[in-house]
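4.2 Preliminary Data

To establish feasibility before requesting continued support, the project team ran the inverse folding procedure on a target of 48 residues. The structure was first converted into the token representation described in Section 3, and no sequence information of any kind was made available to the design step. The complete token record follows.
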């Protein structure tokens, strides 16, 4: 994960979630990056 997060294109204020359990399911997201774009719209990227 260090190599993935050590990227200049990821803003310093990006949110990071690791092993996120999805409520009321048996599923989870192992890795998620979230933040806002230049238009202040929320964005998220996930990797299982």
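Position-by-position output of the design step:
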């Amino acid at each position: 994960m260090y190599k993935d997060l050590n990227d200049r294109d990821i803003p310093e204020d990006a949110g990071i979630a690791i092993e996120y359990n999805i409520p009321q399911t048996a599923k989870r997201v192992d890795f998620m990056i979230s933040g806002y774009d230049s238009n202040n719209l929320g964005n998220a990227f996930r990797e299982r």
